[in-house]
Amino acid sequence: MKKKVRGYVFSRSFMGERVPQHVQNIVIRDYCEKNELQFLLSASEYAMEGCHLILKLVIEELQNIDGIAAYSLFQLPCDDAEREAIYSQIIAFGKTLHFCVEGLSIKNESDCQRVENIWRVKKVMANTDLGTK
Amino acid sequence: MFTTKTEQQLTTEYLSQGYIIRPVADIEALNWIRQQFVDIVSEALGINNDIDPEVLLNQIHERVPVTELNNFRLKIIRGFNAIDGFREHYYQVARPFLDTIVGNELAMQLRVNLSIQFPHDDSSLLPVHADTWAGDSPYEVVVWLPIVNCYGTKAMYLLPPAKAAELNQNFSKSAGQNSEELYHAISNDVKWLNVNYGEVLVFDQALPHGNRINSESETRWSMNCRFKGVFTPYGDKKLGEFFEPIILRAATQTGMSYKLPGI
């Protein structure tokens, strides 16, 4: 039987990116098909800057499904401690948090470290650009 | 620059030619990679994997119809990218050259690409392009790794830096109406890069390059994967979506985690 994952999309921009919700859902659906996951209707995060109330609700309701399929890992909170708390909950519940556009997922400490390395470099690089425009 | 003589030579060669070709730094890693291919291809074709790798790969066009080529290629790509340690072996093959040309804190493409080019097949052609023309960061290099000997039109071509600079100056005039006209405008200046199994090519993807119909009698198998300095600007191929850090030194790790004392 396929594992069930709840989609998670953003209704605001994140780390300078804006992706229409239907495009986020296309990417999530494609990821789920390739990874043989059952895609459950996406939860859409509130538009208020820095808000992750919907994500926290989805995590609290994880007991009956196998994980979350977020569009991007950069939809996690910018605050290191808040991200760490989310990783801890996912691991404690024995669930998986997927990041579809990156093709990565978290289910143990090693996965968290991999995603954190990307996050921390991204934060350092947040204000750089190519200068070719 | 505080570089060694060896580093200076490699740097000068890369800057003047736009590429370097060297024996791989870790032949065991390359042999391991090729064996993974043999295993995956054998399984896909339902044949025994004790076949000579060179025969299997070079003559694959005798076993796979051209109409099935892209599906076959995608299946192989999914197969080797799913193998634990595959990308690390790939990196080890070129590690010292990347250290000198790019740096020793690196970001690597998340999924290695594969090109399979059958003899006389026009369905797998890569028209002349520079990756930067499609939004790649000019800070990226490509590590191009063949698992068969690549020569003549079985290989790829590159426009050297001096000629590329001339093209940039006259691009709209040289480009003509399409990429085929552009190729003909530079065809006398491109350099075809012969790279044998056991060698690795590192090239500047900001230079025009591509391939033509493979007129040799064997199939080309080559992988390509982009590397860049972790802290150099990213283009359309972004951190997370496309690249991930593979080497972060201790001082960087402490720096990224550092917070001033709270008051």
Outline the structure in words.
The complex is a heterodimer of chains A (133) and B (263). With 133 residues, chain A is an alpha/beta fold. Chain A has one domain: Resolvase, N-terminal catalytic domain (Rossmann fold), CATH 3.40.50.1390. Chain A is built from four helices and five strands, in the order E-H-E-H-E-H-E-E-H. Chain A has a five-stranded mixed β-sheet with strand order 2-1-3-4-5, with helices on both faces. In chain A, a hairpin with a 4-residue loop joins strand 4 and strand 5. The longest helix of chain A is centred in the last third of the chain and has 17 residues. Chain A is globular. The mean pLDDT of chain A is 93. Chain B has a single domain, classed as Jelly Rolls, CATH 2.60.120.620. In chain B, strands 1, 2, 3, 4, 7, 9 and 10 form a seven-stranded antiparallel β-sheet that branches. In chain B, 37% of the residues lie in helices and 18% in strands. The model of chain B has no long low-confidence stretch (mean pLDDT 95). The longest helix of chain B is centred in the first third of the chain and has 19 residues. In chain B, helix 2 runs antiparallel to helix 5. Chain B has 263 residues and is α+β, with helices and mostly antiparallel strands. Chains A and B meet through helix 4 of A and loops of B.
